[in-house]
Amino acid sequence: MIAMATPCLLVAGTLDDAPFRVVVPNNDWKLDDSTAQPMGKDVFLVATAINAKAGLKSVVIKAVNLKESPDSALEGLCAGMRDTLSNPAVKKISDAETIFLGRKARKFTYEIAQGDRMVYNEAIVFIVQNIGWTIACVGHAEQKDEIKQLFAFYHPCVTTAK
Fold it and tell me: Residue 161: is its pLDDT beyond 60?
């Protein structure tokens, strides 16, 4: 099996140090990575990709200044995710190890009631150097197949020797 990686372009935005690039498939999708929005201490919402017509969204959350080893940092971020999923309004479906963009990761699948509808969520958490990344893809429960396909928007970067 041959892994395909794409060089990352140097662009001004919140994803310029990301180990991936986001490629949306068409003009129905709007990508916003111009401004990081603080979510907590050293945690930022750094990008959103939204298809308003389809009611689908993907977000990228970045946790910076992680001091632990990558395995400990991953477990720490996942513990925070599990704590969030303990909310009675959240129905956890799965919490499993996975590989994402060639890296050790955890994938969380859960649903949240919003009014009379269920919102389906898949989130992948992984660590690169001292940065934690969470990519979450969201839509209505009947859109599970489409939501799973959103992770294909994320392509690994390769670095070029100087």
Answer: no
